[in-house]
Amino acid sequence: MFSLLADKLDNTFRRLRGLGKISEKNIADALRDIRLALLEADVEFGVAREFIGRVKERAMGQEVLKSIKPGEQIVKIFRDEIAALLGGDAVGLDLTDPARIMVVGLNGAGKTTTSAKLALRLKNEGRRPLLVACDLVRPAAVDQLATLAEQIGVPVYKPAPGSRDVVAVAREALEWARTQNGTVMIFDTAGRQEVDEALIDELRQLHAFLSPRETLLVADAATGQQAVNVAQTFDRAVNVTGIVLTKLDGDARGGAALSMRSVTGKPIKFSGEGEKLDQFGPFVPGRMADRILGMGDIVGLVEHAAARIDEEQAAKSMDRMMSGQFDFNDFLDQMKMMQNLGPLEGLLGLLPGFGKIKKQLPEGALDPKRMKHMEAIVLSMTAKERSNPNLLNPSRRRRIAAGCGRPLMEVNKLIKNFSEMRKMMSGKGKMGAMMKQMASMK
Ligand code: GDP
């Protein structure tokens, strides 16, 4: 998401930064480029125009024209205005008792997945969520929610097969909840291909019955402007309190994210960035703005890694690396750690300037399959070979290649890279010396 926009803006800002002095014409040219980039990213026309108006007003001010680094100033203005457009400060959930959250949206937007992701998140925060399947239109949706609930260990209420009345189901669920010791209930509701009267009617009734603290509209960011229109329609029916933008991991142009807040007036509270249940988090406008500017999201990256890496193990393998004992068993452990982090591409996307680095990488370098192949090669080694890579002579290498079904060349390459890494990291290598020095400074 946003990579196209980030690329275009990067060129514009690079030009601005290169200018020692800035004239009104320079600013006007840059603003025209930015406006076009926003429109190409599918930002709503009026939103783009107002946005440019705000940036222009500030950019033409004396603070910029007289500044020593005018380009930087304009970039900063732009970044702040993007953050403001996305909603300013992050907005949390109202979870005062009775905490009920109604999750609404069109079919396929990601309601059921989001309900489970949210439940997992609340559970990890120490709350006791309960899930309720209120989609009586699509029978598979009930099973889908039940399966996800089981995966994350959250109790789920499943309506009896053939139930038709969603308010009756919700009433039963509230009864059931009394026996469950939960602190927050999440209701996954029915969708449609498009908004229709029957759906709106049903949601209105359910909403009136539940009086939920939060009504979260789940919108697929990949549907662009349509997502914004849908959000408005739902809001008129059931008074949406927040938006969840899903599929921000995709290639969509990002216009939905940028227009959503200002067109609907509703905060984007969460975003989904993948199919996995932990690929979800609060929507933080400032961080998103940094990403759009290609500045990456280092805070997000660190938080993401910290939640998934076993620090003790990481420290242990670091020690082994520095002492030159690092073998293929450690390599396997490290690969597992990497896999826990999720798809490499999504992760690296949080790094500043990654859009550009990615273009320079050989094709398929980030393909998760490569990781699997490397793992297969190491798993085809015997325990002895893994702990003593020096044993890996040509005939053993051929056996390994045949065992895991990878070309011999790939096996050789992996072993070569591994040896180089070991040498570099060990006390004798440059990196090892550097790390030792750093460790002694602490
Ligand atoms: P519902 O019909 O609104 O309940 O939608 P689902 O929860 O069944 O989701 C529809 C599809 O979108 C499923 O294949 C999900 O795995 C996928 N999905 C949901 N959220 C995300 C996301 O943030 N990123 C990606 N890539 N896929 C998602």
Automatic annotation (TrEMBL):
- Where found? Cytoplasm
**Which keywords does this chain's UniProt record carry?**
Cytoplasm, GTP-binding, Hydrolase, Nucleotide-binding, Ribonucleoprotein, RNA-binding, Signal recognition particle
At the top of the EC hierarchy, this enzyme's class is hydrolase
Q: Which reactions is this enzyme annotated as catalysing?
A: GTP + H2O = GDP + phosphate + H(+)
Give the residues the record marks as binding GTP: 105-112, 188-192, 246-249
The protein's matches in Pfam families, at most eight in alphabetical order, are given as: SRP54, SRP54_N, SRP_SPB
Q: Name one GO molecular function term.
A: 7S RNA binding
All copies of domain Signal recognition particle SRP54 helical bundle, residue ranges:
1-86
Superkingdom is Bacteria
Q: Name one GO biological process term.
A: SRP-dependent cotranslational protein targeting to membrane
Q: Name one GO cellular component term.
A: signal recognition particle
Q: Where is the AAA+ ATPase domain?
A: 97-299
Q: Please state every residue range assigned to the domain named SRP54-type proteins GTP-binding.
A: 98-294
Q: Which CDD domains match?
A: SRP_G
- Keyword Nucleotidyltransferase attributed: no
EC code(s) of this entry: 3.6.5.4
Q: Which family does it belong to?
A: Belongs to the GTP-binding SRP family. SRP54 subfamily.
Q: What biological function has been recorded for the protein in this entry?
A: Involved in targeting and insertion of nascent membrane proteins into the cytoplasmic membrane. Binds to the hydrophobic signal sequence of the ribosome-nascent chain (RNC) as it emerges from the ribosomes. The SRP-RNC complex is then targeted to the cytoplasmic membrane where it interacts with the SRP receptor FtsY.
Q: What is known of its domains?
A: Composed of three domains: the N-terminal N domain, which is responsible for interactions with the ribosome, the central G domain, which binds GTP, and the C-terminal M domain, which binds the RNA and the signal sequence of the RNC.
Subunit notes for this chain?
Part of the signal recognition particle protein translocation system, which is composed of SRP and FtsY.
Please report the name of this protein according to its UniProt entry.
Signal recognition particle protein
* Phylogenetic lineage: Bacteria, Pseudomonadati, Verrucomicrobiota, Verrucomicrobiia, Verrucomicrobiales
Q: What gene does this protein come from?
A: ffh
